[in-house]
Automatic annotation (TrEMBL):
Organism, as annotated: Nitrosomonas oligotropha
Species classification: Bacteria, Pseudomonadati, Pseudomonadota, Betaproteobacteria, Nitrosomonadales
This protein's UniProt keywords: Aminotransferase, Cytoplasm, Glutamine amidotransferase, Repeat, Transferase
Portion of the full sequence shown: 278 to 617 of 618
Biological process (GO), any one: fructose 6-phosphate metabolic process
Protein's recorded name: Glutamine--fructose-6-phosphate aminotransferase [isomerizing]
MF GO annotations: carbohydrate derivative binding; glutamine-fructose-6-phosphate transaminase (isomerizing) activity
Amino acid sequence: MVFNAQSISPNLFGSEAEKVFFQTKSILILACGTSYHAGLVARYWLETVAGLPCNVEIASEYRYRNPIADPHTLVVGISQSGETADTLAALNYAKKLGHRYSLAICNVPESALIRQTDLRFLTRAGPEIGVASTKAFTTQLASLLLLTVTLAKMRHKLSAQDEQQMIMTLRHLPMALQHALQVEPQVRIWAESFAQKRHALFLGRGVHYPIAMEGALKLKEISYIHAEAYAAGELKHGPLALVDDEMPVVAIAPNDQLLGKLKSNLQEVHARGGELYVFADADSQIAQSENEHVIRLSEHAGLLSPILHTIPLQLLAYHVALVKGTDVDKPRNLAKAVTV
Ligand code: F1P
């Protein structure tokens, strides 16, 4: 994605965008797989920064429900390929129900999704060679953050000073991602022991819960390890029964306001003899111990944190796949674009 703006404007999303954004009172996001996880992250941003109600639906299920449409709801379709049949069908269904305007966040300019939507934001991540979305995911997140900031600005939720701060934050993203990539040698060591496992649990809270979901999906897709993600507070409602020394538990533990709560969930894993693999920030108050391994990114990155915490999770899936000798670019049974 190319972002050189001095100020953030609706024009980033096409010439019609200003008119549509002024009328927008809520957001409906439709997507599948990794793109769905990007939508779940965006919901936190849209609610918190732009003060907009937001609903995120799995596109493959949406058309089997009878939701109430609202012409002031902007429908956002997210898709790397822009050819995912369920996402296209869900957008059509939303239109039929009475939703008026749609926006595509997509990587492929000539795709069906781009043709069928009113507004568009091209992520320009370059071709995704592998089947599993990786750079498409981080660019989708960056695009959704830009959308959030644009809507927040138009809704007067952002002062000029806040906007400048946000632009600085977005400009800082490439460098912050470079730093995040530096944890690769540590992740490679973890991958050796993960490759021996058959199952894994991923835990996150708040905006990092969908990041845990994406980490689990990547491990499944390219390493063929059964992985499930839970909101950490859900542990005691069932999954805790699975925890033993054969079940690695990966936790996303940034230094945010939910860290204290997350730590008490991790304590429950500890007490059952589980082995913890924690992705923390440099300033997260988390101590390494015999059964608790910690990899730290740089200091807590605020709104950018979910984007940065994606990197070590993608690296983990990648290195486990390399150790296991699976094909990282062409995982069995999966297609790049699911067009049926
Ligand atoms: C959705 C998706 C990808 C996944 C795989 C199959 O694709 O589920 O997230 O990695 O490629 O399709 P898209 O709608 O984002 O192109």
